[in-house]
């Protein structure tokens, strides 16, 4: 009885400050997406040499946020504050594709999601480059991935801030992300025949 | 003029009623306390009569009608006194409630909507008596954490607060002006009050609402009608255009960094409402619901690292370069 109690005290340390890395962001993250190579919407053309996504994972920050509860919950707050929910709802998708499911247009590697947010995506995803500090971008990456169970369940939120029929991030089953082709016309909803797109419908994945 | 934040220092008719009631309860309790203590001391001091011995040195056991009567008189008197006191207090309470209700009636109130957030107060002036200027669709005022109300002995102005919350339960409490009013999300409620003495009255959230509950304060500035009028006129303006290169750069930083996604400044493209409206932030006395006074150093510290000043607050840290920060501060200082 006391042993688990004592052990449960040893959670990761929580602090309200996820030290923001004071690192200048590269002018343009080189785009070399193994999933979907090609042009994307950006106003600042890249001048640097293309590098692989693998290199990006060695950037000084990034994955640490996927295992940090404070970062994920900050990501959740920012997701609402920066109005991601305006287009993606609480993950179920709206004008933007759902983020709760395991279907991705541009890949579910943290670096790929990062690039989605940083540079935007051609069918209506705005670029947040220069708008929000880099560490907040990674917090968002962490939260977005936690929606489909890709973040550490020990760190993911046990409840969301809104009413939703989806499971809370820390009990969402982890499924293998798959990349789906993106529709060429109409709003990019990531909808396939079996795919619910609104939060008002129960999730089908893993149920 | 600063008044102590206290129920016993009323500054309006509502709080005066509540203050009177408080004193009535306090004095009643004091009297009851001394009566109980007096009885106790008396009982300790007097030897119990029924232990008295008769001439035969046998305890007197036969019924004593005088003693019996006295006993019952005492019992009944205590019951009547207790019930009477309770009813008196109840009636005093009801009468104060009615009196508060009566002084609160006004056909032409100053209407202020307050939305409580974790952990700050969003304030909208939605309507005011016509003598303070025409209220049109476009000249409402949005501010935060600081509320100005007029004091006008000739024509007292009643203030109607419409209270709501979008996250958790809060409670609106300015002790010098009125009692608490709990704000339950989704159940808008209202509170009427009046100030009849100019002053700066602190208020706060009176219902635990999370980590920074203690730093969810607000300030009510009750001022003479002319001063209120000029404040109101000032707040109705949009933000001034930046003058000079530095201020223009500051505005650019504001609009292109994350600030504009959470804050609004009337007269610019920033129209978000996650955080307080900053159109006149430089005119306020406090920052972040009383966490720090509004001074340039605190402002800089707040913008770069709010989590150090008010851990857990909903505003994230910012990484701005020194030049950008200086420009931003210079611009924000113009938002009087
Ligand atoms: Cu509170």
Q: What would you say this structure looks like, in words?
A:
The complex is a heterodimer of chains A (207) and B (336). Chain A has a domain at 51-159: Cytochrome Bc1 Complex, Chain D, domain 2. Chain A has six helices and two strands, in the order ααααβααβ. Chain A has helices at 2-8, 53-56, 69-81, 84-88, 110-119, 134-147; strands spanning 103-104, 178-179. Chain A has a two-stranded parallel sheet with strand order 1-2. Chain A is an all-alpha fold and 207 residues long. Chain A is globular, with a radius of gyration of 17 Å. The longest helix of chain A has 14 residues, at 134-147. Chain B is α+β, with helices and mostly antiparallel strands. Chain B has two domains: 1-41 and 66-236, Immunoglobulin-like (Sandwich), CATH 2.60.40; 245-333, Immunoglobulin-like (Sandwich). Helix content of chain B is 38%, strand content 19%. Chain B has eight helices and twelve strands. Chain B has helices spanning 13-45, 65-104, 225-236, 245-256, 259-262, 296-304, 306-309, 322-333; strands at residues 110-117, 120-127, 141-144, 146-151, 159-165, 170-173, 181-183, 189-193, 199-205, 217-224, 286-287, 292-293. In chain B, helix 6 crosses helix 8. Chain B starts with 12 loop residues before the first helix and ends with a helix. The chains are: A mainly alpha (207), B alpha+beta (336). The A-B interface holds A 16-17, 20, 22, 74, 77-78, 80-83, 130-136 and B 256-258, 261-262, 272, 274, 305, 307-308, 311-312, 314, 316-319. The structure holds copper (II) ion. Copper (II) ion is lined by residues 170, 205, 207-209, 213, 216 of chain B.
The CATH class assignment of the largest domain in chain B is Mainly Beta
Q: What structural class should be given to the helix and strand makeup of chain A?
A: mainly alpha
Full CATH superfamily name of the largest domain in chain B: Cupredoxins -  blue copper proteins
Mean pLDDT of chain A: 65
Helix proportion of chain A: 25-40%
